[in-house]
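ok new one. same drill as before - structure tokens go in, u give me an amino acid for every spot. 346 of them this time. try not to just spam alanines like last time pls lmao
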């Protein structure tokens, strides 16, 4: 078997460096480990002749078994014992008859080394099984993502057909489906674990002028169900801002800030310098629907039409699975990260 085909390596964890059991590479690694162990023992012998002959060979057995399997581990055990007997047991460099103490030492070495080989081989089997399950999980997640995309495309086609006489409602529903699909992409990129609120907001504001939008807040990783809901809410607010609010004019400004306190996430949405907005402009189908979407998280959405523009505050309970990371060095006040240009609107 070629080395490239037999060798499996994960750069983040050297313990995943493995070759096929029983292969030439496995036995070569065992011989190399024993040779290094013998060299180390020879150097130590120059320092003190009373150093025990066998301890340096235990790491060689462990590494050989982890990398090459139980066959390589047994080879390293046998070679280590033979070399220790020939080179490091008096008289040196001869296979002289063993004393009772030397015999007991070699037998103890064999027993201990075989236990190491058994443990290492058990670890290899467990690691391989976990890797196979991880691969299967990734394939399942990718397949589910593919099926979800197809279903969303089918739903959009049905909506376009059934609501062709109601373009406004059709557009709102299709926009929500697109937001759901975009957030789902973020969730799938994390292998189904969820998405950060930063990525959700960045995805929704990406089509607009970044110079108009100020974003700041700590790193908060949301579980999938909350990430999906938050994606829909942010999409609805962004769409309304682009249609009627601050993002509908080059002079408009939008500030999105969020914070976490006592297990609750608070998101503040503040628009300014946009056209005058009426209550009917911000109370469409999507807003009414999403006003109830956060109920499962103990959430609330409060909207106010100020003279400067729409002000919205969302607050909800963070599930225990949410991850709140420390903000990067140099962030504002040590607690927020300025992700946009300029300062927040006043």
């Amino acid at each position: 078997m070629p080395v490239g085909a037999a060798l499996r390596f994960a750069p983040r964890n050297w313990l995943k460096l493995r070759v096929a059991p029983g292969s030439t590479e496995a036995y070569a690694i065992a011989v190399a480990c024993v040779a290094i162990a013998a060299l180390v023992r020879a150097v130590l012998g120059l320092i003190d002749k009373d150093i025990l002959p066998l301890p340096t060979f235990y790491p060689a057995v462990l590494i050989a078994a982890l990398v090459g399997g139980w066959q390589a581990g047994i080879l390293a055990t046998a070679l280590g014992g033979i070399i220790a007997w020939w080179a490091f047991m008096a008289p040196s460099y001869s296979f002289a008859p063993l004393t009772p103490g030397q015999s007991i030492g070699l037998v103890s070495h064999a027993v201990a080394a075989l236990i190491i080989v058994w443990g290492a081989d058990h670890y290899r089997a467990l690691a391989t099984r976990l890797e196979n399950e991880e691969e299967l999980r990734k394939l399942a997640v990718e397949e589910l993502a593919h099926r979800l995309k197809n279903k969303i495309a089918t739903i959009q086609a049905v909506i376009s057909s059934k609501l062709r006489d109601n373009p406004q409602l059709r557009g709102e529903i299709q926009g929500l489906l697109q937001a759901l699909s975009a957030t789902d992409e973020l969730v799938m990129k994390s292998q189904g674990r969820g998405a950060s609120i930063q990525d959700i907001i960045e995805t929704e504001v990406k089509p607009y002028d970044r110079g108009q939008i100020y974003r700041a807040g700590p790193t908060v990783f949301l579980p999938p169900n909350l990430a999906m809901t938050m994606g829909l809410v942010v999409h609805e607010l962004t769409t309304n801002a682009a249609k009627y609010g601050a993002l509908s004019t080059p002079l408009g400004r939008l500030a999105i800030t969020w914070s976490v306190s006592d297990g609750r996430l608070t998101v503040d949405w503040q628009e300014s310098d946009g056209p005058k907005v009426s209550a009917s402009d911000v109370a469409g189908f999507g807003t009414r629907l999403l006003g109830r979407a956060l109920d499962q998280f103990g959430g609330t959405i409060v909207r106010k039409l100020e003279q400067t523009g729409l002000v919205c505050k969302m607050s909800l309970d963070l599930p225990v699975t949410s991850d709140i990371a420390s903000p990067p060095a140099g962030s504002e006040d040590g607690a927020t990260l300025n992700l946009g240009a300029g300062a927040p609107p006043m």
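The chain has two domains: 3-132, 194-338. and btw The two ends are 68 Å apart (CA to CA).
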